[in-house]
What does this fold into?
Amino acid sequence: MEMREGGGGDGKLVIVANNCPPLRKSEIEYYAMLGKVSVYHFNGNNVDLGTACGKYYRVCCLSVVDPGDSDITKQLPESH
It folds into this structure.
């Protein structure tokens, strides 16, 4: 699920910060529903989400495309 590319991506999970703008959050949830992708609402703001990703900038939302060997898509609840 990639909104910029018309939804043709192959995301497995979308993580959204709790201070994501409401309109953007509803768009993400809508496109995730269409693409049958799980959405996880991160219990922290965009600075916290960026730090959790190891980045020095704010991250409002992110998509997990390739979970690798981790089982992140199984550990998180379907919709939080």
The chain has one domain: 3-67. The chain has a mean pLDDT of 82. DSSP finds three helices and three strands in the chain.
